User: Which sequence fits this backbone?
């Protein structure tokens, strides 16, 4: 069994919005070990920069300009340092193809029934990424029944918000960092692997229990 956790940084909250960065990691649900990572900027902010920004995008840009996120935002969108030539943008289709190849290699030894694809919320990361696959006429590397919702699983497992501390080397709201953090929350809450099966049985029996995070 393998679990893939996906996180995006975007200019919007709806399918079709501009994607700034794609991050993902693979987790062994038996041990919680992160076995593979993927992190790429998606240069849509440059290749689609002539498109008129929607109200949704403008609202998201305002959020990015908050004191805790503005530094990360400019790291993601700047094309170069002042006084220097901007970095060359890359075709987003090539970047998404790299992600598909990474996904295929990561899950190639696993049966389809044992592959789960996770993201926060059913309407955000996965929906937005699938819309991008469609936009660039690329195949989705997973099927719909493999998709899972991180928030729902954490709530079902009795996870207390904030009980897993941030230990990533980089800042929050970078796609790979956030994906790795979500992976740790899923594992330590008992939402993955054999622990998940035990919790499910306890729920079915109506037992009172509390998940302790160490």
Assistant:
């Amino acid at each position: 069994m393998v679990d893939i956790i996906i996180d995006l940084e975007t200019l919007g909250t709806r399918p079709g919005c501009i994607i700034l960065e794609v991050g993902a990691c693979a987790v062994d649900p038996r041990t919680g070990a992160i076995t593979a990572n993927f992190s790429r900027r998606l240069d849509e902010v440059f290749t689609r920069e002539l498109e008129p920004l929607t109200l949704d995008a403008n609202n998201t840009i305002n959020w990015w300009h908050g004191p805790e996120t503005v530094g990360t935002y400019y790291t993601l969108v700047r094309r170069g340092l002042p006084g220097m030539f901007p970095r060359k943008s890359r075709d987003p289709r090539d970047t998404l193809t790299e992600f598909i190849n990474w996904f295929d290699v990561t899950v190639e030894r696993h049966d389809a029934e044992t592959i789960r694809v996770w993201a926060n919320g059913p309407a955000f990361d996965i929906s937005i990424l699938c819309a991008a696959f469609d936009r660039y006429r690329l195949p989705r590397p997973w099927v719909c029944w493999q998709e899972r919702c991180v928030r729902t699983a954490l709530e079902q497992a009795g996870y207390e918000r904030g009980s897993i501390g941030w230990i990533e080397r980089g800042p929050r709201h970078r796609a790979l960092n956030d994906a790795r953090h979500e992976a740790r929350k899923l594992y330590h809450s008992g939402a993955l692997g054999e622990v998940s099966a035990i919790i499910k049985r306890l729920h079915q029996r109506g037992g009172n229990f509390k998940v302790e995070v160490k």
Residues 80-85, 208-214 have pLDDT under 50 and may be disordered.
